[in-house]
Write a structure and sequence with these properties.
By secondary structure, this protein is mainly beta. Among the domains are: 201 residues, Immunoglobulin-like (Sandwich), CATH 2.60.40.1190; 79 residues, no CATH class. The strands form three sheets. The protein has a 24-stranded antiparallel barrel. Strands 1, 3, 6, 7, 8, 9, 12, 13 and 14 form a nine-stranded mixed sheet that branches. Strand 24 and strand 25 form a beta hairpin. The termini are far apart.
C-alpha cells in the first residue's frame, strides 16, 4: 500500500475511534453548576464618576465578593479581596469595584492605550450578557490608571471584536488599601430586551502573582468570553435602552506623492456614518463614502511558503459586529486566546470588500449593516457597493447571516453571500455562496462545530462545495481537537480567504497540561506536551501535504514560557516557487523536510521583555536557519517601544543557490493620556532596500469622535528614486440624538 494511503487511513481510523463514541454518547449534558446572583440597585441619587466610591447610592447597594482563582490554583479563594456593586438610574448603569491589595506598591500598570492588552498588568473586567442568552456579551476592562478597553463577544468567543467601541466612562483611584474603579455605561450604548435577567461576570488580574480571579467561577481553560458560566444580574426590569441615534460625519484632507513622482496630489473627502437603534435589540449602521486611511498599516513578515501572507481586517466599519457573520470553529479559550483563523478556508473575509488583491483601496460608495435580534433569531445583514476603477468594475457585495439558539449553548444558522458585477454588461459576472452551520455543546467543555456550503459561479458545474466538521474538548488537563475539511475542485467564494481547492484536510491537535507540585521548585507552573497533525489529500486521497508538530512547552510562574518542538512537513508545488532573496525558482514537485524550533518568551510585565524564536533544519529541498527576535522597552505606562528582527538564511539543492531574507521592525507607542496617542511603525527590508514608515496621531476629543493625523512614507535606500509620501488629516464628530 502506498505511504500516502497508509497515512490517510491511519488518521481516519484514529479520528473514527475517538469521534464515534463521543457522538454516540447521547443528548447534550446540561450545566448543573448553580449560577451566582447579584442585584442591581435602582437609585435616584447623583453619582460623580471620579473613582472615589463615596456617593450615597454606593452605600445603599448590596455588593458581591468571594472571587475564586482560575490561575494559579483553580477553585481556591482569591488571595486578595474584591468587592463589586451595581446601581442604575433612568439612563446609566454604574459599576463600582474595590480591588483590595495588601501590597499596593506591587500593582502593575503598563498601558494607557485604548483597547490595551490586559495580559501584562493588574486589571478589572466585567462582561454583560444583556439578553441573558448565555452566548453573547459586551466586555469592559480597565486598569489602575483608568485605561479603557471594550469588546463585543459573539457565540461564547467564537469571535471577539476588540475594535467595538461604546460610549462609557471610567475613573480609578489608588490608595493604601489597593485601587478602585468607577464605571458608567449609558444604557443606550447597550442592546437589550427590557424586563429580562442579564448575565454578568467579573474578572480581576493580579499580575505580580500571575493570578486571575472570577466572581462566577471559570475553569482555567476559559476567559470571561465563556458567557454561559456567568452569574445572573437581577433588578433591571425597569431599565430601558432608550432611543439611540448617532450621526458621525467626517472630513478628510491630505496630499500624496507617489513613489518616484515629482509632485503632490491633493485630495479631500467628506463622509457620513449613521447608527440607529431600529428596536431595542436591532441596530442599523449606514455609511456613505467611508475612508479608512487612518487604519494601521499591515506588518510584513518573512514568507518562505508557497501561499500569500494572511493580513487581518483593521477597518472599523467591517470589524463592528463581525462576529455575527463568523462561521467556523469552537470558541476561543484562555490557553488559545487568539487562534489564527483557519486559513485553509475562512468563509467570510471582509478584506475582499473595498481592497484589491494588492491591498490598495477600492472606493466604497455606500454600505449598510443590520445586526441584532428579532423574533428569537440573531440576524446580520451587510450590503456594500464599490465604485468602478481602472482595475475593477463597480461591484455589489451582500451577506446575510441568520442564527437560532438551541438547547443549552447550541445553535444552528444559515449564511448567504453574493458578489455581483454592477457595471454595464456585467450581469453574467457573479458569485454566490450559501450554506448551513451548527455549533453543539455536547458537554460543558466539548463543542461540535460543522458547516456545509455550496457556491454558484457561471461556467462551473462540478465540485462547488465545501464542508468542515470538528470536535473540540477543552479541559483544564486534557485537550483535543479533531476534524475534517473538504473543498471541492470547483468551489469559489469571492468573499472568502482560502489557499487551494480540490483538497481534503484531516487534523488532530491534542495535549495535556500537568501541574505536579514539584514544578514549583524550578519556578514552573505547567508543562504542556502537545502534538498537532494536519494531512492534506487530493480528491483521490493521495497525500499532497502534511504537517506534524510535536512540542513541549514550559510555563513559568512569572508568565514567561519556553517551547521546544520537532516539525515534519511535506508540500507539493504545482508551479515554480522563488523564495525571497533567491534568483532561481524551485521546480514543481514533491518536497519533504524536518526542522526544529525553539521559542523563548520572557515575562511581558517587566520593564524590559523579549522573545526569541529559532528554526533550524530542512526547508523545501535544502536547509535553513531562521532567527526571529523582539525586544520591548516599557519604562512607564505611557511609552512602549518594540524592536524586532527576522532573518532567514538557507541553501537549496540547486546550482549555487542560496537565499537570505530579512525584515527589521520598530514599533513605538506613546500615550499622552487615555485619550491622546502617538503610534509609529517603521519597517526596513534589506532584500528590497526599502523602508516603510507609518506614523499616526489620534486624539479622542469627544466620545466616539476622533482627530487623526497620519504620515506615510516609502523609500529606497540604494538609488535616487524620490520617496513616496502621504499626509492626511481626518476629523470626525459624533452627534447623539
Amino acid at each position: 500500500m502506498p505511504t500516502e494511503r497508509r497515512t490517510t487511513r491511519t488518521l481516519v481510523c484514529v479520528l473514527g475511534a475517538w469521534l464515534v463514541p463521543t457522538l454516540c454518547a447521547g443528548q447534550p449534558v446540561a450545566q448543573t453548576t448553580t449560577r451566582p446572583t447579584m442585584t442591581a440597585h435602582r437609585t435616584t441619587g447623583p453619582i460623580v464618576v471620579d473613582g472615589v466610591l463615596d456617593d450615597e447610592p454606593w452605600s445603599q447597594a448590596v455588593g458581591v465578593e468571594g472571587f475564586t482563582q482560575s490561575e494559579p490554583a483553580a477553585g481556591a479563594p482569591a488571595t486578595e479581596r474584591t468587592t463589586v456593586r451595581i446601581v442604575f438610574d433612568g439612563t446609566t448603569l454604574y459599576i463600582a469595584a474595590f480591588c483590595y491589595d495588601r501590597d499596593p506598591s506591587g500593582i502593575i500598570v503598563s498601558d494607557l492605550r485604548k483597547d490595551f492588552s490586559t495580559a501584562g498588568q493588574d486589571t478589572f473586567e466585567v462582561v454583560l450578557d444583556t439578553f441573558g442568552d448565555k452566548r453573547n456579551g459586551f466586555l469592559f476592562a480597565t486598569n489602575a490608571a483608568g485605561a479603557k478597553a471594550d469588546q463585543q463577544i459573539t457565540n461564547e468567543g467564537r469571535d471577539i471584536n476588540e475594535s467595538w467601541d461604546a460610549v462609557w466612562t471610567v475613573r480609578t483611584q489608588r490608595s493604601d488599601e489597593g485601587w478602585t474603579a468607577e464605571i458608567a455605561i449609558p444604557l443606550k450604548s447597550l442592546r437589550f430586551a427590557p424586563g429580562g435577567t442579564w448575565g454578568v461576570n467579573f474578572s480581576r488580574r493580579i499580575r505580580r502573582k500571575n493570578e486571575i480571579d472570577f466572581w462566577a467561577p471559570v475553569p482555567r481553560s476559559f476567559t470571561l468570553a465563556r458567557v454561559s458560566l456567568a452569574g445572573n444580574l437581577d433588578g433591571l426590569e425597569d431599565a430601558r435602552p432608550g432611543r439611540n441615534l448617532q450621526v458621525l460625519p467626517y472630513i478628510l484632507a491630505g496630499g500624496v506623492r507617489q513613489l518616484g513622482g515629482d509632485s503632490y496630489t491633493s485630495s479631500s473627502n467628506i463622509g457620513l456614518d449613521v447608527k440607529y437603534a431600529v428596536t431595542s435589540a436591532l441596530t442599523l449602521d449606514v455609511t456613505a463614502r467611508p475612508d479608512f486611511a487612518q487604519a494601521e498599516a499591515d506588518e510584513q513578515q518573512v514568507n518562505l511558503t508557497q501561499f500569500s501572507q494572511f493580513f487581518p481586517e483593521k477597518r472599523s466599519f467591517f470589524l463592528e459586529n463581525a462576529g455575527l457573520f463568523y462561521v467556523g470553529d469552537a470558541a476561543r479559550s484562555r490557553i488559545n486566546p487568539a487562534p489564527t483563523p483557519d486559513e485553509d478556508l475562512l468563509l467570510f473575509f471582509s478584506r475582499r470588500i473595498g481592497l484589491s488583491a494588492a491591498g490598495t483601496a477600492v472606493p466604497i460608495v455606500a454600505g449598510a449593516r443590520l445586526t441584532g435580534r428579532v423574533a428569537g433569531l440573531s440576524v446580520g445583514a451587510l450590503n456594500v457597493q464599490t465604485e468602478s476603477t481602472a482595475s475593477s468594475p463597480s461591484t455589489n457585495y451582500s451577506v446575510l447571516r441568520v442564527r437560532r439558539n438551541l438547547f443549552g449553548a447550541s445553535d444552528i444558522g444559515v449564511i448567504v453571500m453574493s458578489r455581483q458585477n454592477t457595471s454595464s454588461g456585467g450581469n453574467g459576472d457573479y458569485n454566490r455562496v450559501y450554506g448551513v452551520d451548527t455549533n453543539v455543546r455536547l458537554y460543558r467543555i466539548l463543542d461540535w462545530s460543522s458547516y456545509a456550503v455550496r457556491s454558484v459561479t457561471p461556467g462551473v458545474t462540478d465540485g462547488q462545495y465545501a464542508a468542515r466538521t470538528s470536535l473540540n474538548w477543552e479541559g483544564p488537563f486534557f485537550h483535543v481537537k479533531a476534524g475534517l475539511l473538504a473543498i471541492g475542485e470547483g468551489f469559489r467564494n469571492d468573499l472568502a480567504y482560502y489557499r487551494r481547492t480540490g483538497i481534503r484536510k484531516y487534523f488532530v491537535d491534542s495535549g495535556v497540561r500537568p501541574r505536579p507540585g514539584w514544578l514549583a521548585r524550578y519556578g514552573l507552573r505547567e508543562l504542556h506536551p502537545h502534538v498537532s497533525w494536519n494531512v492534506y489529500t487530493d480528491m483521490s486521497n493521495q497525500t499532497i501535504a502534511s504537517r506534524l508538530h510535536t512540542g513541549l512547552t514550559f510555563l513559568r510562574t512569572s508568565g514567561s514560557y519556553a517551547e521546544l518542538s520537532a516539525n515534519s512537513q511535506v508540500e507539493t508545488l504545482g508551479q515554480p516557487l522563488r523564495l525571497p532573496g533567491a534568483t532561481v525558482a524551485l521546480p514543481p514537485g514533491r518536497y519533504s523536510w524536518n526542522h526544529w524550533r525553539l521559542l523563548l518568551q520572557s515575562d511581558s510585565s517587566r520593564v524590559v521583555s523579549g522573545a526569541v524564536t529559532v528554526n533550524w533544519g530542512g526547508i523545501w529541498n535544502g536547509t535553513q536557519r531562521t532567527f526571529v527576535s523582539s525586544l520591548t522597552l516599557r519604562p512607564n505606562a505611557q511609552l512602549r517601544t518594540t524592536a524586532s528582527f527576522q532573518r532567514s538564511v538557507g541553501t537549496l539543492r540547486l546550482p549555487g543557490q542560496s537565499f537570505v531574507s530579512s525584515i527589521a521592525t520598530l514599533r513605538a507607542n506613546y500615550s499622552f493620556s487615555t485619550n491622546m496617542f502617538l503610534d509609529a511603525l517603521v519597517q526596513y527590508s534589506p532584500d528590497r532596500d526599502q523602508i516603510n514608515t507609518n506614523i499616526r496621531f489620534n486624539l479622542l476629543h469627544h466620545p466616539l469622535s476622533d482627530l487623526y493625523l497620519v504620515y506615510n512614507e516609502q523609500r529606497f535606500t540604494t538609488d535616487s528614486v524620490t520617496p513616496g509620501r502621504g499626509i492626511l488629516l481626518k476629523f470626525s464628530q459624533m452627534f447623539p440624538f
